[in-house]
Amino acid sequence: MDPSVKETVGEPSHQPPSVAAPPRSRLAPIAIPVAMFGLGIALVPPLLVTIALRLRQISPDNATTNLGLVLGVGAVCAFIANPLAGRISDRTTSRFGMRKPWILFGAALGYVGIAMIAVAPNVGVLLVGWAIGQTGFNFALAALIAMLPDQVPTSRRGRVASFISLGQNITLVAGTFLVQLFPAGLAQGLVPSAVGILILLAVIAPVRDRRLEHRPTEPFGIRQLFGSFVFDPRRHPDLGWAWLTRFCLFVSQFTATTYLPYFLIDRIGVQESQTATVVFQATLVNGVGLILTTVLGGWLSDRSQRRKPFVIGSAVVAGVGLLVLATSTDLTTMFVGQLILGAGIGAFLSVELALITDVLPSDETSGKDLGVINIAQALPQSLLPTAAPSVVAAFGYPGLFVGGALFAVLGALSITRVKNVR
């Protein structure tokens, strides 16, 4: 992250000689959230709907197991791509900027994967397609998130981060809305993601990107490559506790979304032909909860200069929403649970990204460090598809949702250990 943008009240900012001045763009506080919205639209339809439905078409008897396999492998690819892309973008000296070339590359590669999913004749091709898609979209995501500390001063990050989170999570509604407009087939698989990528590229193109004038002097060998995936929590404990909080809350969120189509079919009794529509309705209700808390949470956080109370409260609310889902046997109760869960996750996401940028340990490795932080979002996507079938088999869907609520509580406890942010 550029030291000229990592500022605190009363402290002067300093411009390192290797960074072209001035690095900020006035468009960035608007463009970054809208770009995140577009990237989410590209990613959400396969993640929530189309992969699950395609697997039921390709191999109906093994759909649940195959969904876990496909999502798990894709999440591992996200796990690898995110911090690696952040590290590479920190070192990029392109005349087009540090971040934008990787956003373009990632979006193009991601759509190749989406196209493979749409035409996949078997589970193997679909798995490879999702691996490519996750790799590409997470390259774009890492570079896009790194623009936040590049472009936005600390005093405004809560508000901008809340809009980023709002854009990212409204995509649950927008993406599933686009999917249910099309019958199962090529259009359902290809059009929603194409719309999202066009939005992403259109809004990010005019942003003036941060540029490096000179190549970093630090070598980039095997040691540095593997260092892209870790940080030392003993040296940076606040970042470690923030990482754990994010991990716990995203476990909570993904317990309610990963197997949502199958939950609706198996427990609520929704017909398979209506699943896409009901998933859209559920994410719409969830999105209402998100909207009610996201913008307000970011604004209040900036006004009060406090982050932790909002994270703790949001984790408790999310846990309550998951407990309601655990008791649901009809659509009405399920929608209530989604509304409460959305309110909790929205409040959490409105402040946690700002909190994380406040505790980043290094001004020169913000892309890499944010990439490692994003592992806390990708890792649950890898672990849940592997663990969830066994949990559902042993305890049913209520056990899965109760487990998610427990992780929300753990997230609330872990954030209390952060010392240098109020």
Automatic annotation (TrEMBL):
<feature type="transmembrane region" description="Helical">
    <location>
        <begin position="30"/>
        <end position="51"/>
    </location>
</feature>
<keyword id="KW-1133">Transmembrane helix</keyword>
<dbReference type="GO" id="GO:0022857">
    <property type="term" value="F:transmembrane transporter activity"/>
</dbReference>
<feature type="transmembrane region" description="Helical">
    <location>
        <begin position="277"/>
        <end position="298"/>
    </location>
</feature>
<feature type="region of interest" description="Disordered">
    <location>
        <begin position="1"/>
        <end position="23"/>
    </location>
</feature>
<keyword id="KW-0812">Transmembrane</keyword>
<feature type="transmembrane region" description="Helical">
    <location>
        <begin position="160"/>
        <end position="183"/>
    </location>
</feature>
<dbReference type="InterPro" id="IPR036259">
    <property type="entry name" value="MFS_trans_sf"/>
</dbReference>
<keyword id="KW-0472">Membrane</keyword>
<feature type="transmembrane region" description="Helical">
    <location>
        <begin position="189"/>
        <end position="207"/>
    </location>
</feature>
<feature type="transmembrane region" description="Helical">
    <location>
        <begin position="394"/>
        <end position="415"/>
    </location>
</feature>
<dbReference type="InterPro" id="IPR011701">
    <property type="entry name" value="MFS"/>
</dbReference>
<dbReference type="InterPro" id="IPR020846">
    <property type="entry name" value="MFS_dom"/>
</dbReference>
<dbReference type="Pfam" id="PF07690">
    <property type="entry name" value="MFS_1"/>
</dbReference>
<dbReference type="GO" id="GO:0005886">
    <property type="term" value="C:plasma membrane"/>
</dbReference>
<feature type="transmembrane region" description="Helical">
    <location>
        <begin position="127"/>
        <end position="148"/>
    </location>
</feature>
<feature type="transmembrane region" description="Helical">
    <location>
        <begin position="102"/>
        <end position="121"/>
    </location>
</feature>
<feature type="transmembrane region" description="Helical">
    <location>
        <begin position="335"/>
        <end position="357"/>
    </location>
</feature>
<feature type="transmembrane region" description="Helical">
    <location>
        <begin position="310"/>
        <end position="329"/>
    </location>
</feature>
<protein>
    <submittedName>
        <fullName>MFS transporter</fullName>
    </submittedName>
</protein>
<feature type="transmembrane region" description="Helical">
    <location>
        <begin position="63"/>
        <end position="81"/>
    </location>
</feature>
<feature type="domain" description="Major facilitator superfamily (MFS) profile">
    <location>
        <begin position="26"/>
        <end position="422"/>
    </location>
</feature>
